[in-house]
Amino acid sequence: MSPVEIACDESGSEGENLLGGETDVFAHAGVRLSPEAAAACVREIRARIGSPAEEYKANHLLRAKHRPVLEWLLDPGGPLAGHGHVHLTDKTFFAVRAAVRLLAEDGTDAMARSLHRAGPAAFGAARWDYFLTAFTSVLRLNPRRGVTTSPQAFFALVRELADVPGEAGEIVARFRDGGERVAAYRARLASDPGLVPVLDPLVPAVLHTVRHWSADGTPVSLVHDEQLALTAERVLQLKAVLGHRLADVRFVDSRSDARVQIADFLAGVARRIASDELNGRGDVRLTTLLASFVDTESVWDGSAAEHPRR
């Protein structure tokens, strides 16, 4: 069976910097369009917007005066209907889930959701933020900014929070024996430059993108915007995990491939719409339009903020 080409791009990528960065949502988009259909779509967007800019980005579509163009692009009768897919990651929840999975011997996603919901009130918002930032610092061998915490200091904080009454304290108490797992992870990270960091949402999102488009058994070839985090070693790991589902990955400059430009549009507007929803300023109309594109396995705690789902 011949593979289908899926053009991809992302928005909100800051590597392992999940907290305190420029964005709180990461979006990875894939579109299945022919080069001719994508080029026609780009021409139509340019004609409808009428800007003299040489390269259009998602910000053009997100301007209030271009709202009709954005609604047209996402509409069930629009050019992307059935041809687009977005995997969303709430970066804070992603960090909480990573902590639960790594530090608790029996950590589950249900446990992560409970901690994500209860943590701020149980520990106080500032203390909770510091705890999560300290956790992400411990898992990075060379953190470039933010809190720098040693494993010893982090687990002292774990013991402190474990004494807080309630569900959040009980969950954190399960982290007290996670020191060996953290040490083992840091050792693997130091010895294997190809290891996918548990704090980087890009590779998991790519996995979901491929699984979505290959769900009917058709193998996928990714045409991805240039992305330094997708090293040759990580592409090999993706192929090892996905098997026959992933036929190939090649990188292009988005300006040279209209399909990737459309993926860039979709990722950028999806990230902004989802971030607004996450922060209580969501637009019901746009959230509803986005819903048909969103992967149901997105890393999102739907009860903490309404998730744009199908």
Automatic annotation (TrEMBL):
It comes from the Bacteria. This is DUF3800 domain-containing protein. It comes from Amycolatopsis nalaikhensis. The lineage of its organism: Bacteria, Bacillati, Actinomycetota, Actinomycetes, Pseudonocardiales.
